[in-house]
Design brief:
The protein has one domain: Gcn5-related N-acetyltransferase (GNAT) (Aminopeptidase). The two termini are 26 Å apart. The chain is globular, with a radius of gyration of 15 Å. It has four helices and nine strands; from the N terminus they run E-H-E-E-E-E-E-H-E-H-E-H-E. 29% of the residues lie in helices and 37% in strands. It has 160 residues and is of the alpha+beta class. The structure holds coenzyme A. The site of coenzyme A has 18 residues, from strand 6, helix 2 and helix 3.
């Protein structure tokens, strides 16, 4: 049984920081040329019993919530879906009608994941990852499936 909660203890915050640094190669995430630091974002942690199994980070603006990162400790076990549902509920409850995000052009698994959950590709930001790499050199040049990583794909879901 999976449950999703905001961080409640310093240990939650420390765990989130470790996951972010391990999974995203540092303290900063880039999207559409903007830097995002974890401390500035809202976090949600997925729990299976007493074990932390997922982390999502998002931020809210008047025109919608941006899902900045989402990570499942174990893939294909429903953790990502539960976190995505939780963020959509939070956004709706905050009066926001849209969730958007970017992912890199190599992340075919994420593209499948989001599109099967109602997200549409609304823009391709050609060369955005190349530009982000100039500011964050830890972004790899070659990504999943040995695909060269150059571009950001922007997806959105309109919430009803
Ligand atoms: C993208 C991600 C968050 C999805 O989370 P998840 O917990 O694997 O998602 P779910 O289990 O809810 O669903 C994953 C889908 O892949 C399928 N799947 C099965 N085995 C899988 C596996 N070994 N790996 C990945 N997906 C698998 C699931 O059945 C499901 O399929 P569906 O879309 O047909 O329903 C997760 O894979 C992840 O952490 N990826 C690395 C970080 C990342 O790329 N984040 C997104 C960009 S910000």
């Amino acid at each position: 049984m999976l449950q999703v909660h905001p961080p409640g203890t310093p240990a939650d915050g420390m765990w989130a920081g470790v996951v972010w640094r391990q999974e995203w190669g540092g303290d900063v995430m880039m999207s559409k040329g903007q830097r995002h630091y974890m401390v500035d974002l809202h976090l949600l942690i997925a729990w299976r019993g007493s074990e932390r199994v997922g982390l999502a980070a998002y931020r809210c603006e008047a025109n919608g919530a941006e899902l900045v990162s989402i990570n499942a400790v174990e893939k294909g076990a429903g953790i990502g879906s539960v976190m995505l549902d939780a963020i959509e509920r939070v956004a709706l409850a905050s009066g926001l009608a849209r969730i958007w995000l970017v992912t890199s052009n190599d992340n075919l698994d994420a593209l499948r994941f989001y599109q099967r959950r109602g997200y549409r590709i609304v823009a391709v930001h050609k060369g955005a990852v190349d530009r982000a790499r100039e500011l964050k050199p830890s972004i790899p040049c070659e990504g999943l499936y040995n695909i060269p990583v150059h571009d950001e794909l922007e997806l959105e879901k309109l919430l009803t």
